[in-house]
Amino acid sequence: MADTILQGEKITRVFFQGKTETKVLDGIDIEIYENDFTVIMGPSGAGKSTLLYSLSGMDQLTAGHVFYKDKEISGLS
């Protein structure tokens, strides 16, 4: 079995606009394996880009953790 290169645990992302709260990602678990081809599909507005930004470390998570090669990257500046 291939090694896990990227792992997300309970990824949650909430956006706030005034008093309105929009939960875009709600407890997503994902594992991406080395040398695999991974596709993320869904309709417009489903949260695909938000998930990719969260996995890349470019966006701060509301909750959850992201690991790259077993090192946590969520919360890094």
Characterization of this structure:
It is a single chain. The chain is mainly beta and 77 residues long. The chain has one domain: P-loop containing nucleotide triphosphate hydrolases (Rossmann fold, 3-Layer(aba) Sandwich), CATH 3.40.50. Helix content is 12%, strand content 47%. It contains 1 helix and 4 strands; from the N terminus they run E-E-H-E-E. It has one helix spanning 48-56, and strands at residues 4-17, 20-33, 63-68, 71-72. It has a 4-stranded antiparallel sheet, with helices on one face. The chain starts with a strand and ends in a 5-residue tail after the last strand. The relative contact order is 0.30. The mean pLDDT is 94.
**Binned strand content:** over 45%
Number of helices: 1
Average per-residue pLDDT, rounded, comes to 94
Superfamily (CATH H level) name: P-loop containing nucleotide triphosphate hydrolases
Total beta strand runs: 4
Spatial separation of the terminal alpha carbons: 32 Å
Biggest β-sheet strands, sense, barrel = 4 strands, antiparallel
CATH architecture: 3-Layer(aba) Sandwich
What is the ordering of alpha helices and beta strands?
EEHEE
Percentage of residues assigned to helices: 10-25%
Question: How are strands sequenced across the largest beta sheet?
Answer: 2-1-3-4
SS-derived structural category: mainly beta
What overall geometry do the principal axes of the alpha carbons give?
Answer: globular
Poorly predicted regions are none
Q: If you compute it from the alpha carbons, what radius of gyration comes out, rounded to the nearest whole angstrom?
A: 13 Å
Which assembly state applies to the chains in this document? Answer: single chain
Predict the CATH topology.
Answer: Rossmann fold
The first-level CATH class name: Alpha Beta
How many separate structural domains?
A: 1
